[in-house]
Each structure stands twice: as structure tokens, then as C-alpha cells.
Amino acid sequence: MSELTIRFKRQLSDFELDINEQLPAQGISVLFGESGCGKTTILRALAGLERLPESFCQLGEHCWQDEQRNHFVPTYRRPIGYVFQEASLFEHLNVAQNLQFGWRRIAPKQRKVSMGDVCQLLGISDKLERRPCSLSGGERQRVAIARALLTSPQLLLMDEPLSALDLARKREFLPYLERLHNELDIPIVYVSHAPEEVIRLADHLVLMKQGRVCLSGPLQQTLLNPKSAQLFADGASSVINTVVTSHLNGLTELACGSKVLQMSKRDIPIGQKIRCRIFASDVSISLTKAQDSSILNLLPATVCSLKPGVRPDEVLVQLELAEKTPLLALLSRYSCQHLKLIPNMVVWVQIKAVAIL
Ligand SMILES: Nc1ncnc2c1ncn2[C@@H]1O[C@H](COP(=O)(O)OP(=O)(O)OP(=O)(O)O)[C@@H](O)[C@H]1O
Question: Ligand 1: which of 10, 11, 19, 37 to mutate, most ligand atoms within 8 Å of CB?
Fold first, then answer.
């Protein structure tokens, strides 16, 4: 599989960046970390907007920087699309003219996407005559992404593209990014410090702190690492891939491999794949299947490991549901001892429908 290799170094008086990572050159890689940890610096270096010393970056076979050879490809020669926190559109041009600006820069035989397809994908086909000042923040960002895509980039860089939107607009916008991810074969490096965006979008997660990478890997596996609970801001959680199968009794039913899960009703079409997030603190364990519980999701699982939680009196239990689907449960040390939990033990996990997010 082709990869994006980045080795970036930067030494400032009170900040040191030292990154050595191989990211998959497909899907969405999210750089996540607190403000000032170096995420934007990485994107700028990837785009060639900053030339960092002793650095190296290469996408597949294309080397864009190798300071050992004094090799540096300038920004305008890198096939990259860059979407910033706030869309910088040309205000004196309408949407169609803004899009043509990106489109015309590319020779016809190098174009990988069509204007019509990109407009449809991002839901802007009916806005082509509008001036940017008449668009909402979310619509402006969609136009900015469309313009970046029309340059047929080999890599798309997105620096917190939703940060200027309110919560309702963010939720409206996320499905467009999911479609982008599902329908186009362009790797994306996406900077965020919003866990919801990470869960919905990331294939590969890079957790950063103070200029360094603390954890990096496929989303599901990275979240299983107990260290991620500290880095990921709002506690340990698991991500489960499901498909919507029905809506009934105010609930939405999901297929998770051969098992069924129920969540509070969501307005999602039947057949659509969704990623669900379940906080470890919302999962409980029993040794037998409860017969008289209000909890709707009762599933057999196997204990894989028991690791210390963030607090000394808590234990993070790693479990496997059917088809090796990983799930974390956060229990008190007392409960673990009381149930005598050990690896390979078969137990029942309980998850409230309202706790499946
Ligand atoms: N041109 C510069 N001169 C001096 N310091 C800089 C410069 N650019 C960035 N820095 C510092 O480098 C560090 C990393 O900045 P960077 O913008 O990459 O962080 P970030 O993780 O993207 O933050 P945020 O999430 O707030 O955007 C910060 O401490 C910042 O103050």
C-alpha cells in the first residue's frame, strides 16, 4: 500500500516539533491534539508553505522534500488541495467562477473529477450563480472544498474546516465529508480537536501532544489503547461499525456483524453504514444474561485484557463481541474483583440504547 511519509523537525524557543510518521495514502488520517501541539505546522510543511530543516516528506513515489539532498518541491508544484478553517473565496467572483479558478489550473488530461460531479457531491449545484457573501458559513466551506477538489489533488489537507460553524451547521456538514471519503479516492490529512469529527471521519488517528506523536494507528485499535483515554479529551470509548436495518418503537436497529444493537431513533436511511461510539463508562458487565433489565443491548463477549484505568481504582476491560468486534468497559476495581474477571472469560455486556452515539 502506498504511504505518506513525514519526518518534520522544528525548533523554536518554546516549541519543538519532532514527527516521524507513515500515514496510509488513502482514506482520512486525522491529526488530533490540543491547541499549539503542531498540527497546522505539519499541514503547512506538507503543503510546502514552510520549509522545515532536516525534514523529509514523500507521497507514494513522489518525494516533495528531502533536506539531506537539498531537495524541496515548491508549493505550486505539489498536487495538493488545502482547505483552511475559514473559506477564503474570491468575493468579487460568483461560485461558478471561483470553481473555474481551480479547474482551469489543471490540464484537461490530468483532471480526475468533473465539475458536475463535485458540485453534486457537495450539494452546491444550485448555488453556482451566487456571490460568496450570500452563502452561509457551511456553504462557503463546501465551495472551498469543491474548488480544492477541482485541482485534482493527490492529497487533500483540511485544517479544522468545521471550526467556524455552529453545532447545527457542523452536523449538517459532516455527511458531505463522509460522502467525499466514500466516493473519492483522494487521501485526506484532516486536523481537528473535536472528538465527534474524529469518530465520524478518521480511518487513521494520530494523537499528538507538544510537538510529538503519542499514539498513531487505525481508529479502532488506537482507541483501544488505554493511553488514548487521556489524550482523547473525553474518556475511553470504542467505535463500532454498523448498518441501519430498521426503525421501530422509537428505536433504530443496527446490524453489527451477526448481532443486533438498538439505539435511540435516528433519522438515518435503512441500509446506511454508520459508525457508533460507545463510552467505556456506559458499558457494564454481568456473568449471566439479565432477564429483567431495562437495558436493551445484552450481548455475549469475551474478556481479552484488563488494564489500569486513568484513575487507580478503575479498570479498563477490553472485550470482544462476535466477529472480534472490540469493545471497552470501564469498571471499578472492586467490581472486577467481585466478578473475578480474567482474560478468556465469557461474560455478558450491557449497553443502554441511549448510550450508543
Ligand atoms: N511563525 C511562528 N513563529 C513562532 N512560533 C510559531 C510560529 N508558527 C507556529 N508557532 C508556534 O508553534 C506551535 C505549534 O503551532 P501550530 O499552529 O502548528 O499548532 P496547532 O496544533 O495547529 O494549534 P491550533 O489547534 O491552536 O491551531 C505553537 O506553540 C505556535 O505558537
Answer: 37
- Pocket residues for ligand 1 (CB within 6 Å)? 12, 15, 33, 35-41, 193
Whether residue 218 is found in the same domain as residue 95 = yes
At 300 the pLDDT is 94
pLDDT digits (tens, 9 = 90+) for 5-22: 999 998 888 889 999 999
Task: Check if the beta carbon of residue 71 is closer than 8 Å to that of residue 65.
Answer: yes
Same domain, 202 and 323: no
Q: Which of 205, 234, 263 is the endpoint of a domain? A: 234
Both 48 and 102 in one domain: the answer is yes
Same domain, 35 and 118: yes
Specify whether 250 is located in the same domain as 315: yes
Q: What is the pLDDT of residue 233?
A: 64
Global ipTM: 0.93
Q: How many CB atoms lie within 10 A of CB 116?
A: 9
Per-residue pLDDT tens over the stretch 150-191: 888 899 999 998 887 777 777 777 877 877 777 778 899 999
Q: To test ligand 1's pocket by mutation, which of 15, 157, 158, 206 has the most ligand atoms within 8 angstroms of CB?
A: 15
Which ligand 1 atom minimizes the distance to the CA of 14?
29
For ligand 1, atom 18, the nearest C-alpha belongs to: 38
Cβ-in-10-Å burial (0-12, 13-18, 19+) of 153 comes to buried
Domain count, the chain: 2
pLDDT of residue 311: 83
Is residue 54 located within the same domain as residue 167?
yes
- Is residue 137 scored above 90 in pLDDT? no
Distances (CA, A) of 193 to 72, 155, 159, 205, 290: 30, 21, 10, 12, 38
Ligand 1 center from residue 36 Cα (angstroms): 5
Q: Which of 207, 234, 261 is the last residue of a domain?
A: 234
Question: Can you tell me which atom of ligand 1 is nearest the CA of 42?
Answer: 18
**Do 225 and 285 reside in the same domain of the chain?**
no
Residue 126: CATH number of its domain: 3.40.50.300
| Same domain as 21, residue 115 | yes
Residue 188 domain boundaries: 3-234
Other Cβ atoms within 10 Å of 93 Cβ, number: 14
DSSP 259-270: EEEEEE-----T
